[in-house]
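Dear support,

We are seeing what looks like truncated structure output for some complexes. This example has two components. We would appreciate it if you could run it in full and send us the complete token output so we can diff it against ours.
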Amino acid sequence: MTQGQSWARMLPFIVLLVLAIALPALGNTYWTVIATRAAIYWILVSGLNLIVGYAGQLAIGYVALLTIGAYTASALVAGNVSEPWEPFTALAAAGAVGGLFGLIVGLPALRLRTFYFAMTTLGFATIVTQIALAWESVTGGGIGVPGPAMPAPFDSDQGLYYLCLGIAAVATILTANVAHSRFGRGLIAIRDAEVAAEAYGISKAKLLAAVFVLAGVLAGIAGGLFSSLQTYITPEAFTFELSVLFFISILIGGRSSILGPLLGTLILTVLPEIAAPLAAWSNFLYALLLLVIVLAIPGGIASLLDFGGRSPLPANRRIQPELGAVRQILADVPRDGRIVLKNLHLSFGGVKAINGLDLQINGGQVHGLIGPNGSGKTTTLNVISGYYRPQEGLVTEGGTEVPSGQPLGRARRGFARTFQTPRIVGDTSVLKNVMAGGYTRARGTFLEALLRVGRHREDERGLREMAESALRAVGLSHLAHVRADRLQHSELRFLELARALMLQPRYLMLDEPAAGLTGDEIKRLGDIIKEISRCGTAVLLVEHHADLIFDICDHVTVLNLGSVLASGTPQEIRTHKEVVSAYLGA
Amino acid sequence: MLASIISSGLAVGAVYALIGITYNTMYSTSRVMSFTAGQLGMLGGVFGSLFMLRMGMSGPVAFVLTLGLCALVGVITEFVAVRPVLKSLDQHLYVLSTLALALMIQQVTAIEWGTEPQPFPRLLAWGSGPLDERFWLPVAACVIVVLALEYLYRRTLIGLAFLAVAENNFAARSIGLPERRLRVISYALAGVIGGIAGFASGQLMLAFFANGPLLNFYGFVPVALGGLGNNRGAVLGGLALGLFQQTANFTVGGIFASIAVFVLFIVVLMAVPQGIFGSNSARRV
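Here is the complete output from our reference environment:
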């Protein structure tokens, strides 16, 4: 991103910060208190945004973590657990406890579907409130406990405001760092293209765990500050409506955005103050607002602010691949790759999908896999990718066995693939979609990305350069910054190919890449695939377009009913009697 | 004490089971898990109390009116929160739209009806002690609803149509079943079932606006444990949940009972995400 674009992106935040710093100068302490509350809510929402907006996990009951943070800080400072703690250490402890419970609340997300996970967070929120009521020695039960008083100069309204504002600014920077790193792209990939994310080595468990801990820490700190602001907390302060408010802020703001939820939080905090006569109906209005947003503007404020995303695309676009760029990307690919499938058997219940399959693909060759529908072509591909575990048989790569049923490890071994229906993330740019393919090639850890130190910068630079190269190679450079869901179907197929090139793959598996392409585009696709194999990659091409197969393949295997019907050079297959009768036709 | 545990456990469990069936009925024709299921149960009790105690109507009239209104709420759910969302490709939106609608229903009830639980009158003067009406009426309602649904699904054409749409949406449409109309009818039916649950348990749970979220969660547990779309699983799950909850309530007390239920729920769900009687989802690649 150029310096100019970088500044443009930061401008709204800088403006808001300046306005926020100037606010107390208005002299009205009431609005200072409201602004403090907005800052505290944003500290929590910035973390929750990564969970809900980026990862797509519907954590509705998040007020539980605010409660935990608030009571931890208050109980420690009040001396209910041990000798009274210093306020700032108590705040840090609230963050740590919040991080721990954030992970616990989030764990079910790894196994449960959306609605189920939402329900568990709701249940958790209820439990936490019940515990707060019952554990009187620590939380003061229904009577409550005084919140920690911050030391001077933070004990005045203004002082506390600036403290919260400062922490809110830090929270914004941290979460924005994650969002704009490969982890942010990984989260979005998990949300919208989970199967593809697995193929490219993006581990849902590890990524979600990291984000849940981060969000939990932020929520815990927000809770501690909240109890300071309230000066006295009881379980009644932590209502379900507060949870809904956090959640709605993110949805009003829009997914995959930092600015949107920030504005959403500000709007929702300020709204009840402005619409005071409607106070009793404020919760109803929140809900109504949520309904309207979901039905009318599902993309939220972020989609309204996305001016660039609405400029029309040129109508007669052509995809012009650059074979030189392909050669550049695949310059270091070794030519000796070999995948061997031996005596594979796979059944889905009573259906025998693969029945004794032997196959070998070699580096530097294009191996075609054809056959009637239901013959097991895509299933074979999925076994190699690791999604299915065969009941019998062996898959080896370069002589060593490849563990079955574990798709995550494939990317590191140099396996790349495309899918029968393009699996991409609609609401990010083409460039970011492609960069997501290189997830496993980056070295920096989550912490480095969070703080923008260490290997993070060179990772981002490397991924960006490689992605731009890949887009040049497939001929989509002119669409690099366009949202992927605005592309035509054929462009999406080339996008998937570019993503696969990010891995500089030893093995490239293509699942019907020509489906839906025009004759011209198929020819260009063929050129790229041939070039890729010339560079040393082993290509396995599943296709129905017989012309493409016979044009570019070095070796063809024909499947029928899960086993090999014939195998040989394109010439042999073309004239093979059984293949002609079962599949090709006269 | 055992008699109390069993009678209150079965009663409360029957209510949870009925709400679970409400969820399932809405899910079966739309593949949507609606947050309004628990609210329908709440409305059954609130409307019943409103018509009988505040407006002085007789039991049967109030019952019919309540069911009618609940059916209407079900249909509104379909029109407002489900149909528009099914058209879009974003799967998670239905959670939000139904949540929004559920919250709106809850808030209106809180404001118009009040935030204090209101009493619900005795309907039939049979039984006392562990066999008091507040205990056997929900169980009887559950049994009747389950039998009626069995008859509906197995013996009537419209029931078969529901099953067809639930099993395979596209195939059902291709043989000419009016999918949209069936969906509206099934949401009305779900409203009626929720209304029956609330009306029958009025004395047990009182006419209280906070019953909505309570029933949302506890009515969901039988669905999660019994398998999505599986009514028999929901009944078994509901009764088991009710008994477990009341046992915990009577032995270790309210707070720990809630925690116990919740922990059990999470543990079972993590072990068997598709439910104990549920089926695994289809291939995802």
